[in-house]
Amino acid sequence: MAHTLIQVDAFTAKPFRGNPAAVCLLESAMPESWLQNVAAEMNLSETAFLLPEDGCFRLRWFTPTVEVDLCGHATLASAHVLWEVGLVARESGIRFLTRSGELTARAEDGWIWLDMPARRTRAAVLPPAVKNALGVSTVWEGVADHDLFVELATAGEVCGCTPDMALLRTAVDHGLIVTARADEPGLDFVSRYFAPGVGIDEDPVTGSAHCALAPYWAEHTGKSLMSAQQVSHRGGDLRVRVEPKRERVLVGGQAVTVLVGKLA
User: Fold this and answer.
1) Which of 45, 225, 234, 260 is 20 to 30 A (C-alpha) from 9?
2) Are 20 and 8 within 8 A, CB to CB?
C-alpha cells in the first residue's frame, strides 16, 4: 500500500527556509516500528503521520529516534497539507487528536494559526555543564516542562551562540530554549532551540518552544500579540497570541510545499 508523503517548509513563505517536516497521509493504521523507521529514513527533525478518525485526524510526531508529545512545525505542515490536497476545505478548521490533547488549526489571511497548550516557565539553576556548553552569561535561567530555558542579554548573543554540542548532548536530556528581547523594529523576541536529547542538535524553527516563549515574553512586555523570529541558520517567522484565561497559545506561521511523493 502506497502512502502519500509530502515535505513542507514550515514557518516560512519561501522554500528552503523555515523548518522542514515530512507529512505522511496514512491509508490505514501502521505499526509504531514502521512509523519510526519512516521518520528515521526521512531524517528530518520531525515526521508527522495523519490518519482520519471520527471527523478529525489522529496526529503523531516522530524524530529520527523517538516519538514526541508535541511538535508545532509539523502540525502547521500537516494543516497546510490537508488544505492543499483538498482533504479539508480551506475555510474549515482542522481538529487533531494528539498525545498533547486536541489541537486545532485555522487559516486566516495567508497564515495558519495553531491553538496549542501554554507552557509555563519557572526559575531554576542550570547545571554547570549546560552553562559551560553554552559559553555565554545568562540573564535568567529556568525550566519549561522538560526543556531548559535561558534568557540572554541581547539578540546578538542568541544569534552568535555556538554551544559545545558534544558537552550539551551529555548535559541536556531533552531540549534547551535560548532567547532574548529583539532589537529590530516589528519584532518582540528571538530564540533558538537545541534538542540533542531527542536527536536534534538545533531545530530550525520550533512551534512547541513558543508555547513557553509566548507566556514568558507576554509577562515581560505586557503584550498578548507578538512577532517572533527563530534565528537558526534557516530562520523562521512566527506570530504568537497568549490567551491566559484558556491557558492556550495561538502560534501563527506560513508554509510552503517542496516535495510530493509516495512511499513504495
Assistant:
1) 225
2) yes
Q: Percent of the chain having pLDDT more than 90?
A: 88
Query: Grid coordinates representing 155?
Result: 539578540
Say yes or no to pLDDT of 1 above 70.
no
Kindly tell me if the per-residue pLDDT of 68 is higher than 80: yes
Instruction: Supply the mean pLDDT for the chain.
Output: 95
Spatial distance between the Cα atoms of 53 and 29, rounded to a whole number of angstroms = 11
Instruction: Name the residues annotated as catalytic.
Output: 46
Residue pair 237/253 in contact by the 8 Å Cβ criterion: yes
Residue 22 has a pLDDT of 98
Q: Rounded to an integer, what distance in angstroms lies between the CA atom of residue 234 and that of residue 12?
A: 10
Domains of the chain: 3-115+252-263 (3.10.310.10), 122-246 (3.10.310.10)
pLDDT of residue 219 exceeding 80: yes
- Other C-beta atoms lying within 10 Å of the C-beta of residue 14: 12
Cβ atoms within 10 Å of 116's Cβ, excluding its own = 25
